[in-house]
Every structure is written in structure tokens, then in C-alpha cells.
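Model it.
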Amino acid sequence: MVKVMFRDKEWEVRAGMTVRDAILKVGLDPQAVLSVRDGKLINEATIIRQGDVIRLVAVISGG
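Modeled.
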């Protein structure tokens, strides 16, 4: 399984799907978060692997 974390929430999803699919599965908007694995930014097309921990960070915009 893969652990997906956002703020104080945590979910487990199956390995082998894309980051985008995992974000949708946990009920979040892929355009509202950035994904980080092992301290590095990854894109939504990245395939998640068994044992991964994906941290989601809210996108903040402004001027």
C-alpha cells in the first residue's frame, strides 16, 4: 500500500496508480495540491510504488 498524507489526514491507496488517480481517490482536487515523495516534487503522471509516502501540499497563489 501507499500512504497519502495531507495536513492532518492520512489515507492508504494501492500501488501502481498515478499520483493524479490517488489524489482523486482520496477526494481532493489535483489542481489544488502539489505532490512530494522522498522530499522531491513529483508530477501527477508519476506511478506510485509499494511503500511510497506521498505528501500533498496545498497550492497557494497570490500577488
